[in-house]
């Protein structure tokens, strides 16, 4: 089993499926150490990776995510990813 550091490294892998899996696993682990790297991954060129990153951040939670997720919402072009960001923001604001 990979550790958090390896999954963080995988967020920069050239293969989008590896990046997507890394985000999913970081969300499952819920390690705060991954938050900064996940925030950077909100700008991934692949919408499925971005969706998984948003999901992972939602699982980790915390008020510090409100600003980067709000920024990502403003910059996001994909409607499905936008709806995902909105759901996570709603959850974080409760």
Automatic annotation (TrEMBL):
It comes from marine sediment metagenome. Transmembrane segments: none annotated. GO terms for molecular function: oxidoreductase activity. This is HEAT repeat domain-containing protein. InterPro entries: ARM-like (IPR011989), ARM-type_fold (IPR016024), PBS_lyase_HEAT (IPR004155). Gene3D superfamilies: Leucine-rich Repeat Variant (1.25.10.10). It holds the Pfam family HEAT_2.
